Amino acid sequence: MSEVKLAVLGGSGAGKSALAVRFLTRRFIGEYASNAECIYTKHLSLDGRQIHLEIYDPCSQPQRGKLSLTDELHWADGFIIVYDISDRASFAFAKALLYRIRESHIGACKKMLESAVFLVGNKQDLCHMREVGWDEGQKLAMDNKCQFCELSAAEHYQEVVAMFTKVLRNVTSNFKVKEKRRPSGSKSMAKLINNVFGKRRKSV
Questions:
Q1: Full residue range of the structural domain in which residue 185 is found
Q2: What's the whole-number mean pLDDT along residues 34-50?
Q3: With 38 labelled, which of 73, 112, 197, 199 sits at a CA distance of 20 to 30 A?
Q4: Is residue 203 part of a domain?
């Protein structure tokens, strides 16, 4: 069985948690304050291949510019960067996240060569309040050599599944034999699909 680790990142209110839970449970949970990091796990079959999936949803960063991604960059096989199309500040945060990932890719983190990065413009159902154009998202993705889509976690379940499936295909197609392990105690984390597991993140 292949093990795939994805990190879903984004600013507060972008809907990253809702996106992950929508994919895992089909349910839309709406917005809530994420004050703890969570790991969701799920077993699934992709193209006849059994996959043990772990999705990491970190605590939303309360202060812009404080991007502590060291653990995520070394742990994740792929990244989903989420912003809210009706909130330009969340788009700026996504841009900063992509820059941080690209910076690591250019640097010593060879693992990034095998990682898939997907930029997602969420809350397409709020088009009437749009602050970020589709073309802006597309350009940001092209500049950072990653994939892009817009969707609504609230309304587009099938599109959410299609996006995650595409990320998983990209990751598994680049897999090497060696599997990576999370630096801090992944073994002790309970399996969660319908429940949110919270663990206070220690600052280093």
A1: 2-198
A2: 84
A3: 112
A4: no
CATH code at position 46 = 3.40.50.300
Task: Judge whether 204 lies within some domain.
Answer: no
pTM of the model: 0.78
Q: Which amino acid is at 29?
A: I
Q: Is the pLDDT of residue 185 over 90?
A: no
CA–chain centroid gap for 172, Å, is: 16
* Distance from C-alpha of 52 to C-alpha of 4, rounded to nearest angstrom: 6
CA distance 145 to 70: 21
Cβ atoms 23, 95 nearer than 8 A: no
| Residue 155 CB partners (closer than 8 Å, separation 6+) | 124, 125
Domain count, the chain: 1
DSSP 37: B
